[in-house]
Amino acid sequence: MIQSMTGYGKATAELPDKKINVEIKSLNSKAMDISTRIAPTYREKEIEIRNEVSKALERGKVDFSLWIEKKECAESATPINLALVQGYYDQILTISENLNIPVPHDWFQTLLRLPDVMSKPEIQELSDEEWQVVLKTILETLEHLTEFRKQEGAALEQKFREKISNITNLLKLITPFEKERIEKVKERITDALEKTLSIDYDKNRLEQELIFYIEKLDINEEKQRLTNHLKYFITTLENGHGKVRS
After folding, report:
1. What's the pTM value of the predicted model, to 2 decimals?
2. Ranges for the Endoribonuclease YicC-like C-terminal domain (predicted)?
3. Residue ranges of the chain whose pLDDT lies below 70
């Protein structure tokens, strides 16, 4: 079965704290051209991701996206460094007393903007278990994209077969017109010699010239070449080696 070069696939996976989304789009291209947008956590796996995409699709202009949707929960909120807030607060009070500077009217706004008060969560390393979930989602997305391309290819194959059948049938209808055309050419030439030009001519010589001329009008070679092309097209479709643009 042929496959369209145009395809789309998407799959998702749920983890306790996030949702993983994978999306792949493909367009026609003679070579493999992959553009990726990968969430930072999974960038270390980019080479492996590219290998999986190349293995499944072989060629095409491919846009690959892998992103995360964080789940909202109290545990995911950025923690506040209480000890550091207390330290900043004590220092500000001391500075206010020593330098006679008024204390802030809005303590929270002031304290929360100070360096490192909002503690940054540690960067989590990618576990093997999580990567297996992500990889499975990528492979599922590739399966969806391939199925999409096969469906498009099946519709195109049907259209190709219809057009090839029409051409084949029309080719068969040419034969009677071809014989009639040659006779009309012959009649037109002899009529021009006898009636229009009103001259005597050597009929044997005319026959020889007509044979030479009619050979140039013969289209059997072109018909055979077209027939071969149509057979080759059908063979390519049935062998399933074709990739078509759409």
Report:
1. 0.59
2. 177-240
3. 1, 72-78, 119-124, 192-203, 206-217, 240-246
Name the nearest CA neighbour of 189 among 174, 216, 207, 215. 207
Structural domain contains residue 227: yes
C-beta separation of 193 from 206 below 8 A = yes
Same domain, 101 and 161: no
Asked whether residue 146 is assigned to any structural domain, the reply reads no
Burial zone of 26 (CB within 10 Å; 0-12 exposed, 13-18 middle, 19+ buried) = buried
Q: How far is the C-alpha of 217 from the C-alpha of 220, rounded, in Å?
A: 9
* Those residues with Cβ within 8 angstroms of residue 135's Cβ, 6 or more apart along the chain or in another chain: 45, 48, 52
Digit-coded pLDDT (tens) for 58-104: 889 999 999 998 876 545 566 778 888 899 889 998 998 888 888 88
Segments forming the whole domain that contains residue 198: 154-244
Measured distance CA(50)–CA(47) in Å, rounded: 5
For residue 222, tell me if it sits in a domain.
yes
CA nearest to 64, candidates 28, 26, 30: 26
State residue 89 phi and psi, 5-degree precision. -60, -45
